[in-house]
Each structure stands twice: as structure tokens, then as C-alpha cells.
User: Fold this.
Amino acid sequence: MNTLAQEMSDGNRILTIALFMVMVLVTIFITIQGGRKTSTATDFHSGGRGFSAWQNGFAVAGDYVSAASFLGIAGTIALYGYDGFLYSIGFLVAWLVALLLVAESLRNSGRFTVADALSYRMRQRPVRTAASIATLSISIFYLLAQMVGTGALVTLLLGIKEGETFLGMDSGAAKVVGIVVTGLLMVAYVAFGGMKGTTWVQIFQACVKIGLAFVLAILVLVHYNFNLSALLGDAANVSGQGAAFLEPGLRYGAEVPGDALQTLWNKLDLISLGLALVLGTAGLPHVLIRFYTTPDGKTARKSVNWAIGLIGMFYLLTLVLGFGAAAMVGKDAIIAENPAGNSAAPQLSQVIGEDIAGSTGGAIMLALIASAAFAAILSVVAGLIIACSSSLAHDLYNGVFKRGKASGHQEVVFAKFAAVGVGAIAVVIAVFAQDLNVAFLVALAFAVAASANLPTLLFSLFWKRFNTAGAVAGIYGGLISAIGLVIFSPTFSGTETSLLGEGVDIAWFPLSNPGLVSIPLGLICAVVGTLMSSESNPDRFASMQVRALTGAGAERASAH
Amino acid sequence: MTTTPEENGPPPEVSEADIAAMHDDPRFVELKRTLFRFTVPVLLAALAWYLVYVLLSAYARDFMGIVLFGNINLGLILGLSQFVVTFYVTWAYNRFTARKFDTQSAELRDDIMNGGAK
Assistant:
């Protein structure tokens, strides 16, 4: 089996680049169209609240299905078999929390940001500050994970190896160019298109990435005459692991012979990851603010139905793509290309394309799947940038510094500058951090969302006694414990694959995923903080709950 | 409160007090009970099933490896069952809201908007 780089002539790369360019031009056009009518704060933060259930459902899928899902899960399944599937399942089941408890109530009781709902019956400034810091932490961790990955992905998708050059760029330069171009695009979507432009871009990109994943998965299944068992059997044989490839344990919760303690930690780490995945989604700010783009709570809820359908289908496809790559590309060829397995889906597309129409077919399929991965990167980072800029402008600038006195126009202007600022910072950090192992940042973002945001959001909606002290303690408690535990975990120091390498060892916390400890800690902080303060506002709780459940007095769609 | 009604309150035609008054209306109490009676047990059951799946993946690997037919083992089927449960709950919640929630909720909203709860 040849590797991508050997297969990839300059002509193939030009085809991939051409498709990237088409994607860029189409999305810029959509942004300009969508952004023309963006003038008020409601337009900028919430896209005018005019999106229908299917539109927001597609946009949510665009926001949620990242390149890490697209390439990462398929790659993990291709290398480790069954264990990669755990991510798919956690990412999907999590949506039930959003559907049953959060979507409709949040839409009905908030305005633009997560902090709106959290601070509704609290003292505004402390809660907004805390909620905004949590939103920014989660979104920036997630953003950095995506941006650092982007450089490597673009060189991977273009097949530029170490020591090679393409259009005068070596792989290092190509990585920087990839990061900068992605940064410029995400800022452009948000600053020129606001939420309306970004939403349409995400709808388009969701169609591209899910559609192409669907096509590729169908082609794999056609190759196996829709016999899933035969596909799995092939994958297990080629992997050299046999039946173990189809069972849990090759990647997570590994059993270390003779070391019962490490085995225990590994298993607890798996459970910790599972908890953060399933409880984190309903606390991710960039996903939650999408519910404000619908005209009412009922539409927000129905948009989650669409999202669950699309996301569920996509994660089923990752199973076929992952095992397909394991069977048709093979572990050695994948690792030769990318040790983390991110190249599994693109390599699979090339093999399938060649199977159907020779080397031209391979080149075309590869270029298509590369564009789908590019779409996944762009739509997620755009959603993250808008979550950051909305929170900076609406919560910190207007809510905290101007005490709610800034005009909508001032807020929008501030938000656009905030988008440029956050984008610039993210690009600079990503360029300098591109050789670091930052994959843990995604799990950390989910852990913070599950520890700081979800408990306080649920208490705020459903617990009458909950108050300012509880919200502030819950948010900071969850945030600090999640980040603190990761700093003292093996992901940060003490092992070969740690961020700081083997030389530094401050890792006294044995789990890589903090959720198992930080989620209960966030919850306890919220409860203890609440009980230690005598503040209580039963009238505001009454009106918040009536709003949440009936939609009375909820923000409406703007007129145009 | 440091916020102005324009920034963070209801649209002008309905007051905060009118909305809050609905909270003690027996119809609202009933609406809330109907909703939580569905969502809380269903969500807890779905999350419990997910937790069982994660625990089995961690601690019952031989069990997950039991082959049912061809190359399809129990772990894969239980994993796929998570998709089935998620889709089923989504469908069931949609049916529940259509039959038992949306009409009542809209009725209370109209009451509030047309002059407050009685």
C-alpha cells in the first residue's frame, strides 16, 4: 500500500486546492449574503431568530461535528477498533440532556448568551463575569485544539510530507499558512456575517461533510455487499489483533499486567471520559447559543430532533469509515502517514476511488473528503469564535463594564472587534503550539462544560433555592477543578506524550480526564455556595420557570 | 437588579408580575408535573443505560466479546443499542410534547399575554 504522499502528484494537490478554493468562495458569498441584513444586536448574536427547526438542526450539526469527529474518530477506530466507537456514542447520547432539559428552557429564558439564562434571577455582574469566563475558557480550549490540528490537517490533506515542498512551501510553512487561512476565514464569517451568515455557512458545511461521509460509507458498504459482519471480519484480520480488535480495551481502560493500581486508574479514566462526553455537550456555549437563533422554544426543541438525526447518522457512518479504513487501508499504511490515525478517512477515500475509477477516481475522492474535513474545521471554529465574541461583547463589555447601558450598535461593533482579537490570538498561539500534543484540550473543554456550566445551568432552571453565591461557586469550582486536575495529570507532565514531556513531573493526579472528580466537585461547590448564602428570589424563580416552560415574554424574532 | 427592563426583561406589554403570578396557577403546576414526570425518569433511564454500557466496556470485556453471529459481538450490539435508545427517546419526547405539552403550554402563554393569570 502506497502512502498518500507517494500517491499524491502536484496535479492531485491542485485538484484538492481547487476544491478548497471553491469552498472558500462559496462560504464567503454565503457570508456576504447572510450578513447584509445584520445590523442589530439580535441579528449579530442570534441571527435575527428566524431560523426554522431544520435549518438550526443542520447548523447545530455543522457546529458540532468537528474535524476531530470526522477524522479523529474514524482514525481511532481504524487503529484501535471498538474503542473509537465510545466517543461516537458519548457525543450522541449527550444530546438527550440538551433535548429533554436544556434547549427549550434556555431559548425561552435567555437572550443571546448562556450567561443570560444563568444570571436571570441572580445579581448580574458576578454571575455574568463567571459565566463569561467559563464560556471563554471552554471555547478557547476547543478553538486551540481545532486550530493547532488545522495546520497538521491541511498539510495532511494536501499530502505534504516533511522535507517536501509544494508551491514553494515546505511542510512547516504549509502548516502556518493553513492556520492563518483558517483564522482569517473564521473571523471573516463572524465579523461580516454575524450569526446569520455563520449559520448559513454552517448549514452548507454540514451538508458537505455529512453528505460526503455518507457517500464514502455507502461505497465501503457496496464494496462489502452491505455485509457488516464481513467488513468487521476483514478489519479484525488485517489489524492483526483478531477478535480483540472488535472488543473494548485496545485504547481505553487498558489492563496493565502485574500493575493492578495502574489498571484501576486506566479504567477510572475511561469512565471519567465517558462522563465528560455525555454531560459536556449540554454545557458547550457555542452549541447552546444556537438555540437562540430560532423563533421560539418549540422550534429550538424541534431543531434538536434534526440535530440528533443528523449527528446520530454521522456517528454511525464513522463506524463504517473506521472499520473500512482498518480493512481496506490497513494500520501500517495509516500510521506511516499519520501516527494518530487522522489520515484514515482520506486514505480510505483514495483506495475506494481507485477501486472504482483508477487513479483519477482516487484523486477525486481524496479531494472531496479533504474538502469535507476542511468544511468540518471551518464550521466549528466559526461557531467557537461567535460564542467568544458574543460573550465578550454582551456579557463582559455590556453586562459587566457598561452595566447594561451600551446600545445594541456599540455591542455589535465591540463583538466584531472581539472576533478579530480572539481570532488573532488563537492564530498566534496555534502557530507557536503546533508541535505540542494538544489533543487533550477537547476532552478538557468537555470536562469544563460538564463541571462548570451544566450543573449551574440546571440548578438555575430547576432549583428554587439556587442563588448568586451558588452560581459563582459552582462555575469557578467546576472550572478551576477541571483545569487544575489536568495540570497535575499525566497529560500535562511526567510521560513521553505529555505536553511538557518526560522531564517535568508534577503529575500526582492519576487520570487524564478530570470529569470523574471535577463534575461532582462543581456540583458540590454550587450546592454549598447556595446554602451558605441567605439570598433568595422566589418571584424571579417563579417568572423564570413560567417563561422557560410556556415561552411567555420570550425574545421574539426580529421583524425583517 | 441592575438591568433595565429593555435589556433583560419581557417585552413591554406583559409585566414580570403577570408572568410570576402564573407560577401558582394549578394549571401551571399540572403542566410542570406532566413535563417532569416524563423527562426526569426517561433521562435518568437513558443515562443509566449509557453508564452501564461504559462500565461493561471497562470491566466486562469477556462479556462484551461474546460473539452473537458472524463477527458481530455483544459489545457492538450494545453500542448500537445506545443509538436506538437515543433515537427512540427523541421520537417519544416529540410525541409526548405534541400530545400533552405544547397545547397546554401555549394556552397558559396566551393567558399571560392577554392580561395575566386568574
Summary: Chain A has one domain: 4-433. Chain A has a mean pLDDT of 88.
